[in-house]
Amino acid sequence: MEKNTAIDLKSLVRDKYASIAKGDKETIQASCCGATESSKEVYNIMNDEYEMDGYNADADLGLGCGLPTQFAMIKNGDVVVDLGSGAGNDCFVARHETGPEGKVIGIDFTPEMINLARTNAHKVGFNNVEFREGDIEHMPVLEESVDVVVSNCVLNLLPKKDRIFLEINRVLKPGGHFSISDIVLVGSLPDELTNAAEMYAGCVAGAIQKTDYLKLISEAGFENITIQKEKAIQIPDDILINYLDQSSLDSFKNGTTGIFSVTVFGQKSGSAMKTLNIVSNGEVCTPGGGCC
Description:
The chain is α/β, with parallel strands linked by helices. Helices cover about 30% and strands about 20% of the residues. The protein has a single domain, classed as Rossmann fold (3-Layer(aba) Sandwich), CATH 3.40.50.150.
């Protein structure tokens, strides 16, 4: 794939996920975020089980890489925004936590996903879950109107991650927070993967270095930045061999490069800063600290 502009990449992702919205769920879940060829190995980049109230199997396309709603500390009555809401599953989990007194807004820039999510919401009869078609770099959400932002394996697909974190800061109320699951790197991917369109739309090639990711969050003005969960992602050989020859594949698998799913917490500063019991794996990143 030639070097793409941000517009080209976003069009690529939109087209891929429009196709996913119309696809077979079993095939989607055997691929890399639904965007690559299926693997014959037992494989799903999302290898956590949704054992959470509000889970909706019809709305779970297996496209996530974590459980951000599990860590998001959503309270009854909260206003929650889900970035890249897909078929709506994380919105429905969040709605269980907000109760009927709260509100959940899912944002996705793929019309086919919005239609699918609205259909799923209609099935369960929720009148306080809303799906808005829009670009998360320019959210259709009022300033300082949101208590919690969640997202599941979406920011890594888009080129302007710095812009997205600034938007999250804009829409959060003072003291509000986010919990986001995403894909990050430690070390560099082979050029063959970085330049592959399918791997970009399939989560991996659009990922950035973990240290850079945390730095973007800090530069957007967030505090109490914490890694809530981290796990290694292994891409099966029968997917990788489509992009790497055997020698490159062996070198990649035996090298120092790591692909990780991380769930990251960040809090907006302000007079309404809340004291939160942040669940984490022990890594805390604060502005001016070592990892930022």
